[in-house]
Amino acid sequence: MLAFATLCCCLAISLTICRAGSRDLPSVRIAGPINPVVAQYLVDELTKAEVAQSPAFLIEIDTPGGLDSSMRKIIQAILASQPPVIVYVAPAGARAASAGALIAIAADFVAMAPGTNIGAATPVSIGLGGDSQSDEMKAKIHNDAVAYARSLAEQRGRNLDWAERIVRDGASTAATEALEMKVIDLVAADRAELLARLDGQRYLRKGEAYYLDLAGVEPVFAEMNWRQQILNTISNPNVAYLLMMLGMIGIFFEISQPGVILPGVVGAIALLLALFAFQSLPVNYAGALLILLALVLFILEVKVASYGMLTVGGILALALGSLMLIDSSVPYLQISRAVITATVVVFAGFFLFCMVFIVRVQRSKSVSGLEAMIGELGQAVTAVQGAGRVFVHGEYWDAVAEEPVEAGQAIEVVALAPMMRLHVRAVPGTLRQEDKLT
Known about the structure:
Order of helices and strands: HEHEHEEHEEHHEHEHEEEHHHHHHEEEEE
CATH architecture of the largest domain: Alpha-Beta Complex
Distance between the termini: 118 Å
Structural class: alpha/beta
Shape: rod-shaped
Low-confidence stretches: 9-22, 126-130
Strand order of the largest sheet: 8-5-3-2-1-11
Number of domains: 3
Number of helices: 14
Mean pLDDT: 84
CATH topology of the largest domain: 2-enoyl-CoA Hydratase, Chain A, domain 1
Helix content: 40-55%
């Protein structure tokens, strides 16, 4: 019994030592453009770390940049955070460009893995008329960004001139050079080295000095929940564009075949998701209107016998609208040309395929109604001298003819005449039994 109690005590002490020697370090990973979804995800995780009184908060970053509004939301959360924020540009080959560079400057500690770079934070005007802004407006935007970068660098004790150059000149700096220029705090090959070298480092909060306690901590990376993952995925320009195209196809089917329901529901959902994504993208309204015009032309092709001209116009409007849809020179905000080409080719093939069948139906012989009488054979009941009576399809009809038709002669309906009359002509040959007057 004594031995059992001693064993339990030893296990309890061991678990306590293990728990004390291994603590969680809340961490997030940003690998891609910074958009409103990523910003909200990071801010939420930073808030959780603050509530849990975590020793620090780690942001592992590899980004080409992102939206200014999202960047400022993240920076505001970093500057207001009680736990010190560590930004680590990793893995090797990663970058903290544009918005990512300013987020790094705002952090308490910045580290980079070998083979990474930071900088290139020149603001790019996006949205309606982005490239056509006046020089005065562009100068205001640049000056505002320069002042913002310098203020962040000053607050964190970093190189002010470098902070200005990455905005004004678009400068980008490698890891080793950034360390020499006092842009970052250290170069670390991996997370273990990063945490070991940062342990005991000094940082300030409201004028008071604190020291990092990272002994035995283990980074625990928080993943986006399913909602954030979906919203982040559809914020990709290519995905948003494909969703819009799917929405167009669904609406087209619902209008051309009313009552099917499923295509309309799927199309409406896809369009709403695309509109959500477009709110964080620089949409050119001329491009959006051209795509809408393409949809209208495709729908009219079903209703109007244009023999393909409306489809050709729709394909041309779709191609031009797709190329103009995103108004930005930033690569990660543009729609892939390969995606546009494939989409336009598929749409063109689909609607040309539909057009062939539509033309075939329009040219085919009617099988019901008065139009179905054209081409039918019958017999003249009376002589048709301009007007007369004929027997066609088991019924008596008033008829007109351009050339005289004798009574009892075989006739063929060539057109419909006003006042429910048939336009007929005499035909040679013997009538079938069912076409003869009985």
